[in-house]
Write a structure and sequence with these properties.
The structure holds 2 protein chains of 2 kinds. By secondary structure, chain A is mostly helical. Chain A contains 5 helices and no strands. The chains are: A mainly alpha, B mainly alpha. The interface between A and B is medium-sized, with 35 and 26 residues.
Chain lengths: 174, 87
């Protein structure tokens, strides 16, 4: 079902806000992660781990979940569809993958914050750089897909387009 | 009169609707960028699996930092391991 123009713009605004917000939040998280791994200052490293946990639970995770839901609504409510174009499918797969890894990683981040806040030296903790860098690459890929929208219809999209074509008029025999 | 050509909303790229792609009687082939991306992802997954199987990539998984899951060093968590002979 295609949304009315006003509703479509509202959903699109929410889609851009949550997606770009997620990207920005991961950038901020990466700065904290880098600080936690490289800083020699014990108090700063401890604070970074605690801030990482707060950022993940209060900003990154809610934005990620909202982004997935709103993206699906946005795709289904426009003529782009969810499975008609390869770039939309690729974005959906990447977003779901990033969200799944994020959901799994939250336990690790909470454990790290708990360990860092325990009073011992938090500089021996490993940080989460591979995941935060990987997440950033995935989100950057979805951003590029959204802007460039590379061509390519899926079989489903092709069938939908064929059905939407006006049928040729059959000339009367008499 | 306003110059509509400078208005981004008047540009075709700003059209929220997808451009109708040329279709023939047969389904379209998978685009090259999808094939290349698929190969790249496949190679990355393969490298990851090989690293995990060989142990070269170190421990991985959500439980690696949790208690009992190869967690942080004991010096960080404050966990105390008694000596082999006991106290």
């Amino acid at each position: 079902m295609v949304m009315a123009p006003r509703l479509r713009k509202l959903v699109l605004t929410a889609h851009v806000a949550t997606s770009v917000g997620w990207f920005g939040a991961v950038l901020a998280y990466l700065a904290l992660d880098l600080t936690a791994v490289t800083s020699p200052d014990v108090a700063l490293v401890r604070a970074a781990y605690l801030a990482m946990e707060v950022a993940v639970w209060t900003v990154i995770l809610p934005l990620a979940l909202a982004s997935v839901l709103i993206a699906i609504v946005n795709a289904l409510g426009t003529t782009w569809g969810l499975f008609r174009h390869y770039w939309v499918v690729a974005k959906l797969v990447l977003t779901l993958f990033a969200t799944t890894i994020l959901l799994l990683e939250t336990r690790t981040i909470s454990a790290l914050a708990e360990a860092a806040g325990s009073g011992a030296d938090p500089r021996e903790l490993p940080g989460t750089l591979p995941h935060s860098l990987g997440g950033l690459v995935v989100l950057l890929s979805t951003l590029i897909l959204s802007v460039y929208k590379p061509r390519g219809l899926t079989r489903r999209g092709w069938r939908t387009q064929q059905r939407a074509r006006p049928q040729p008029q059959v000339a009367p025999t008499e | 009169m306003a110059d509509l050509s400078s208005d981004p909303r008047s540009q075709p790229d700003a059209d929220p609707r997808p451009a109708r792609e040329p279709t023939t009687g047969t389904p379209p082939r998978v685009p090259r960028w999808v094939v290349v991306s698929g190969i790249v992802v496949g190679v990355l997954v393969l490298v990851f699996v090989v690293l995990q199987l060989t142990g070269l990539g170190g421990e991985h998984g959500p439980g690696r930092h949790l208690p009992g899951g190869g967690g942080p060093p004991a010096s960080v968590t404050g966990a105390h391991t008694p000596p082999a002979g006991g106290h």
